[in-house]
Amino acid sequence: MSNTMEEGREWPLYEVFVRARGGLDHKHVGSLHASDARMAIDHARDLYTRRQEGVSIWVVPSKEITASDPAETDSLFEPARDKIYRHPTFYEIPDEVKTL
Amino acid sequence: MYTQALDTLGAEAASLGEGALEQRFLARVDAEEKIEPKDWMPARYRNTLIRQISQHAHSEIVGMLPEGNWITRAPTLKRKAILIAKVQDEGGHGAYLYSAAETLGVSRDQLIDQLLSGKAKYSSIFNYPTPTWADVGAIGWLVDGAAIMNQIPLCRCSYGPYARGMVRVCREESFHQRQGYDLMLHLARGTPEQKRMAQEALNRWWWPALMMFGPSDANSTHSGDSQRWKIKRFSNDELRQKFVDFTVPQAKFLDLSVPDPLLRWDEAKQMHTFGPIDWNEFDQVLKGNGPCNVERLAARRHAHAEGQWVRDAASAYAEKQRQRAITQAA
Questions:
Q1: CATH number for the domain harbouring residue A32
Q2: Is residue A13 included in any domain, yes or no?
Q3: 8 Å CB contact between B156 and B178
Q4: Closest-CA residue in chain B for A49?
Q5: Cβ contacts (< 8 Å) between A1 and chain B: which residues?
Q6: A71/B8 touch (CB, cutoff 8 Å), yes or no
Q7: In what helix (H) or strand (E) does residue B273 lie, and over which residues does it extend?
Q8: Is the ipTM of this complex over 0.95?
Q9: Are B70 and B130 in contact (CB under 8 A)?
Q10: pLDDT tens, residue by residue, B205-227
Q11: Domain range for residue A38?
Q12: Which pLDDT tens digit goes with each residue over B32-68?
């Protein structure tokens, strides 16, 4: 994608995930460049948690992430659309039956 | 995570014609769906976004300079802490925006090169000087106020990474505007000298702030496509009018006067009418002939050059650690 990156001069890109509070999942918040993972954590702290937005940070080299292809959206996700029997609301249970 | 983005475009574009892809793209935009980095998009949409987002990023970075030079001279420790936090936010906003631009296939180094070589544009407002402490207040109140007016609609723009970045920026920008107004309020209620200082800062920043919304609709070259693509939701003149209507009562509360003899409230239209903007001045500043264009760019180049050894050292350290890990594993 970028020539400079292929030449290895530009610092690698990291994706940043932040846990907002204890008990919650880490959530993707953005990306940044850093010379290594340690610096990526330090930069992520300065860039994404200046207002107490997090209690824990993950950084992942962007090139390590494999993403699904938008062109395959239909073939990947369409098959789930007509399987409504996977949801509890599909089943009508008589009112007399409790705690189900 | 977007570095593999372009790989899939070839196959998809080949299976559908360019025209059909564009139709599908426009239909998605019309349906208020977000366009994401790996989705097909017209080259003109991509280029428009790269230009707009990178100019926006450059503006944030250069925008650190006019206020940054007051950090060491802030009148109190409280004001100093606030100003440092604000300037740090501007740097952060630049970083969010560069990241968003990079998802479109341009590298950070290319973007920085464009800024430092003088090829890229940034907001004309940052080429004005900040001769007094009151300018820091006027910038927060007026410049950040105008920026918020421009940026809030961008939170709903059709390009996902830009819209998400803007949500974050807008959340932080409100602090910038309020601390500026708070500063102005203190000066306006202070000694006659302080009040005069506040008035003079308002006089300096009012017209440049109105120019931040860009050329009048009749002369705006990029608006048509941007509105079609839902990058831009309101016209320059609509946003400028809204800004004037919001800001004039705020000036009145400060008991300061807006430097426009033609400004008046139009009861019938329920809006303010205001005097003509000096577009010649705007053009001159954009062309590089503003009061501080040369100084701003020189400061950026200097900072970049002075930081080179730090970047080199960090790279060398990372490489050494990598080599050491390989040796230990072997």
A1: 3.10.20.520
A2: yes
A3: no
A4: B92
A5: 2-3, 5-6, 105, 107
A6: yes
A7: strand B271-273
A8: no
A9: yes
A10: 999 999 999 999 888 776 788 99
A11: 6-90
A12: 999 999 999 999 999 999 999 999 999 999 999 999 9
Chain B contact present for A7, CB below 8 A: no
Q: Are strands B264-266 and B271-273 parallel, antiparallel or unpaired?
A: antiparallel
How many Cβ contacts (< 8 angstroms) between chains A and B? Answer: 83
pLDDT of residue B3: 44
Read off the pLDDT of residues A28-75 as tens digits, 9 standing for 90 and up: 999 999 999 999 999 999 999 999 999 999 999 999 999 998 888 888
Token pair listed for B314: 């960090």
For chain B, percent of residues with pLDDT exceeding 90: 88
Domain-located, residue A100: no
| 3 state DSSP class of B151 | helix
What is residue A99's predicted lDDT score, i.e. its pLDDT? 87
Overall size of chain B counted in residues: 330
What the block records as the tokens of B34 is 């977000």
Q: Which residue has the tokens 């003509």?
A: B276
Structurally, chain A folds into a number of domains equal to 1
Q: How many CA atoms lie within 13 A of A58 on its CB side?
A: 10
Q: Does A8 touch chain B (CB under 8 A)?
A: no
Token digits of residue B206: 């009012």
B104: which 2 tokens? Answer: 């479109």
Q: Which one-letter amino acid corresponds to residue B12? A: E
Give the integer Cα–Cα distance in Å for B25 and B135.
45
d(CA B127, CA B131): 13
Q: Which pLDDT does position B12 carry in this prediction?
A: 55
Tell me what pLDDT residue A73 has: 84
